[in-house]
Amino acid sequence: MLDLLSFTSFSICLCLVLYLAQNQIRALSKVLFAKKEVVSDKERKLSSSNPKPSSLYGNSNGTIPKPTPLMINPDEVKNYDDRPWRPFRWPYHQTMSIFKLDINHWLDMDKYYQHYIDEKERIRLKYGEENFGMLPEGYDACVELMETVVDHMVERYPLLFTILKDGDWQTAGKVLKNEVTGEVLDMTRPLKDDPLVYVSKLAKEDFYVVLKNPQDGLHYMVAGAVPFPGGSFFIKDKLGNHIDTIHRDVPYYEKSLKKSMERWFGRMRPEDPVERASWYITWDAKLKVSNIYQTEKFFPNMEKDLEETDPRQFNVRVERQTLRRLPKTGAIIFTNHPIYYSIEEMKDEPMIPSILKKIIHEGPEDILKYKNFEMVRDKLSPYLDELIQRQKDLGLITDETPLKTQPNYPFAHWVKDNINVSENEGWNNPGTGYDKKHMKTEGFDASKLAGNE
Ligand code: HEM
């Protein structure tokens, strides 16, 4: 009897304890969730005044991306094609048009690598500060850039770059062999050369270094290794300038770019690299000054040269660009890399000739002027018409195919699902107008260049 009583009271107590505990847990969980809500409310408020980049523009998971190895050897580089850019949009609006960058493509490799590195060296020695410059306040950022480029090249292309002496960057530095050019680069401390010189012997991109001025909070260019500006400007005129001044001549900058760019620079994080591309048309494949930007003073035969050129030799010069922030100095690194694609090699790509023709005739007025489209369009129109008709005859397009930005923008339609990509050869254009072995720089002769190139 006593046992039964004590069991009953024990059970009641247990139930009471469980009930109380359950309520306590419920109450506690309410507090926890309420806290979470409060925190996320707060976050929401913070993020609305200082928005984080959306995932469209970057990884945003807090880690600085690292490249994966691409096992191509120095011989294979000679046959390697880079991603095929087709940054043609219709309607043509001036916007930031940035995309998340897969870090593997920060510093790309292709069959023109040796030519670009040779040209960088030639232009640096011949033109010096016209294309290369650094302000004292940019030094630390340039050193960080050099270290980042070396680390990237070694990780991404292990068969093309060999570390011969592996010291710590801060104290000892490294010695590296570029297996493509054969050059050994001694980057042990103290550095024997300007950090941008080493960078230029490693990567085929042009580099711009931008820092925020703590006094006015605005972004200025503090250094640049820019041998391939294409001819429309020189780096010595841009060095030390604010980003707005640098873009002063860019059409619709004030109206369409200025605000979003300054906001973007302010919030950009090291883990969110992006890329973009712009383009123009010319009838050469020169790197420092394209024919289209060659001035009469240096190239008096320009008009005659243009007249005599077969339209099949016309190229689109794509300026492929990336932006990333370095974690230590906070510098923004802007890279630019010209790649030439002939109109002929794109002739089997649906709507490409049609969009090109539309843009060079009906694009925004200031863009037509800035890119000198007026100079080439009469020459190109009959050729583009021929290609458009050819696409209709082949059934690639019809009269009803809408003229608009293509679905695989900013790349060629044939890279969809990476069908035409091979590990050792890169991207293989399947079009009938393309020959993989053909080099647009064949027969390049520096002694024949005009006075300003
Ligand atoms: C998201 C960032 C950026 C955007 C959207 C942007 C956009 C543009 C555009 C639209 C042009 C005209 C070229 C064309 O369309 O063919 C241009 C030119 C140029 N950009 Fe940028 N840019 C950016 C960042 C930078 C940075 C960081 C620098 C480095 C200092 C820079 C330096 C230049 C230079 C030197 C030119 C040539 C200007 C001239 O013709 O005098 N850009 N940019």
From TrEMBL:
Superkingdom of the source species: Eukaryota
Source organism of this protein record: Candida theae
Residues making up the signal peptide according to the UniProt record: 1-27
Bias kind Low complexity: ranges: 47-56
Pfam families assigned: HODM_asu-like
Region (Disordered): 44-64, 430-453
Protein name: Uncharacterized protein
Keyword Aminoacyl-tRNA synthetase assigned: no
Keywords noted in UniProt: Signal
Amino acid composition bias (Basic and acidic residues), ranges on this chain: 434-445
